């Protein structure tokens, strides 16, 4: 799969003015006004005035507060607009020529990770790029799940996707749903909420008598254990994002790599590639 463009929704503002938005983010981070003010080089009194609408923050202070609160780039634009300032961060389509270097770098990264699986997803888990390791794992998945814009959560949890092949499905499903819950709390996206409700509603096969127990396994992290060509392959997932992004599209991309969790998995993938 090659890097492709995807549409993104604009998050709705929670309340009017920058004050309520700042207060909501501060409470979400469980910081007092004094703690946040000290981190941002301001005063608790001034921050109180901002949150209650009695004072308008400067653009510089607003961005500094957003940085200390780890507000996503998309939501920083919402803060700026609420305070009467122009948005600071563009949202460049992924197929724009301005991002040619980014796309080329991602393609090289994914190819370089082969034969191990790796993919790139956006904030809605739409797959925008993947390498041959991912295509190997998805062999046999129906075309309706692979096009026009495959979604990583659907591909993994749909009963016609990878789910029947995942040997520790209940554990892995719980991990993915918890990850989505954290993302929903962070991004406040209606599209992400709808996706969560969809995949959480997929049926989970009952445990069969004599099935392999889903108990703690001797790995340093929870593995994805998936059946492929009569073998059980074990992977540890690692997710990377871009540091200090200045564009919404770039900020919402994530590179997920599947590291072989044991020697047998690594040897099998190398043999397939060879």
Automatic annotation (TrEMBL):
Residues 22-76 form the HTH cro/C1-type domain. CDD domains: HTH_XRE (cd00093). Signal peptide: none annotated. SUPFAM superfamilies: lambda repressor-like DNA-binding domains. PANTHER family: BLL4672 PROTEIN-RELATED, BLL5781 PROTEIN. This is Helix-turn-helix transcriptional regulator. It comes from Streptomyces achromogenes.
